[in-house]
Design a protein that fits this description.
The protein is globular and about 50 Å long. The strands form three sheets. The chain has an eight-stranded mixed sheet with strand order 3-1-2-4-8-7-6-5, with helices on one face. Strands 9-10-16-12-11 form a five-stranded mixed β-barrel, surrounded by four helices. It has helices at residues 3-17, 111-129, 157-167, 200-206, 258-267, 283-297, 312-329; strands at residues 28-32, 35-39, 47-48, 56-60, 75-78, 82-87, 91-96, 100-105, 133-142, 145-150, 170-180, 188-190, 195-198, 211-213, 224-228, 237-248, 252-255, 299-306. It has seven helices and 18 strands. It starts with a helix and ends with a helix.
């Protein structure tokens, strides 16, 4: 969530909620990224699960945010055991020991707006603190493996993922992709939750079946949330391919030179948006090692994505062929 988006959200949400009191908080249990989450914030984006000993607790209450390390609409401060993130127009968040998130909503902000940063940068940072490699990407299960789409804003990550889902493949994660590199084998992509964010034009062109389109959380947020009823892979899968998306006239796949693989993974790792402050202690060396392991293990390719949405089928066919060829070689 950007500072400008947070600022645009503030006025409408606060005006609409003036005079309303805080509703009673109910604990709900969810599953995401292989973890059980006990949350006082309603998160219908996630998969519900029976009550159990939680890996993560999300509680609503006051958060005393220290003096920020950044100015403007987004402030953060990172310590060895606690990390603070704050959007003054939305709320403040404190992560403790990679196992608890305290949420302090701004006046008049409801759960759907809180979920926007909570399931994005806040959860991404917590997963990073737990030793996972987090990419700003989308991931799809194809056959027995998973493919990851990375790229700059507007490159078409979610749109390409949507086209793959429409063809019959299954979503692993959108926006926040978590990889477990603890085993000596191939890195594993952990399933996130069954939601895909699509711009209106892409949603109209792709028209994913068996998806619930959720109401926009704010008029200034361009993408709509598509909650999949089907088409979600709930089991971890080994990473098979990474594609760096680039807009082009036609669909094509080309090999990324070896020297470019590691910088690409580092560039699109989620933690880079927080800067060096998020890589204190041993986290910096661990993060670099994980990026190098992923770059050295998984084939990284450039994927030319046609600018016309109607031409995405050609990209899907190329991906399927490339993944199948890699499986035969493996």
């Amino acid at each position: 969530m950007t500072a400008s988006t947070a600022a645009l959200i503030a006025t409408t949400a606060q005006d609409a909620a003036r005079g309303s009191g805080q509703s009673a908080r109910v604990r709900r249990f969810y599953k995401a990224y292989g973890l059980t989450i006990d949350s006082e914030v309603a998160l219908p984006e996630l998969e519900p699960t029976p009550p159990a000993a939680p890996d993560i607790v999300i509680a609503v209450g006051p958060v005393d945010v220290p003096r920020p390390d950044a100015e403007g609409g987004f402030a953060f401060r990172f310590g060895s055991t606690r990390q603070y993130l704050s959007w003054p127009a939305v709320g403040s968040f404190m992560i403790t020991d990679a196992a608890r998130i305290d949420v302090d909503p701004a006046s008049g902000i409801d759960d759907p707006l809180l979920a926007f940063p909570l399931l994005g940068p806040v959860l991404a940072l917590l997963l990073h603190q737990r030793g996972l490699l987090i990419l700003h990407a989308s991931a799809i299960a194809v056959g027995d493996g998973g493919v990851i789409f990375m790229g700059d804003k507007g490159a078409g990550k979610s749109t390409t993922a949507g086209a793959m889902i429409r063809t019959g493949h299954r979503l692993l994660s959108d926006d926040v992709v978590a990889l477990d590199l603890s085993s000596r084998g191939r890195p594993m992509i952990l399933p996130g939750f069954p939601q895909l964010k699509l711009a209106a034009e892409a949603a109209d062109a792709i028209r994913i079946g068996q998806a619930e389109v959720r109401p926009p959380v704010h008029p200034q947020i361009e993408k709509t949330q598509h909650r999949l009823r089907e088409g979600f892979s709930s089991a971890p899968v080994p990473a098979a391919r990474i594609y760096i998306l680039q807009r082009g006239a036609r669909a094509e796949i080309s090999q990324l030179p070896g020297a470019g693989a590691l910088p690409a993974v580092i560039k699109f790792s989620y933690v880079t948006r927080f800067g060096r402050l998020a890589l204190g202690g041993d986290l910096a060396s661990t993060h670099l090692r994980h990026c190098a392991q992923l770059a050295g293990t998984i084939g990284i390719r450039r994927l030319g994505v046609p600018t016309g949405l109607e031409r995405l089928e050609g990209a899907v066919a190329l991906i399927e062929s490339d993944v199948a060829a890699g499986a035969r070689k493996g």
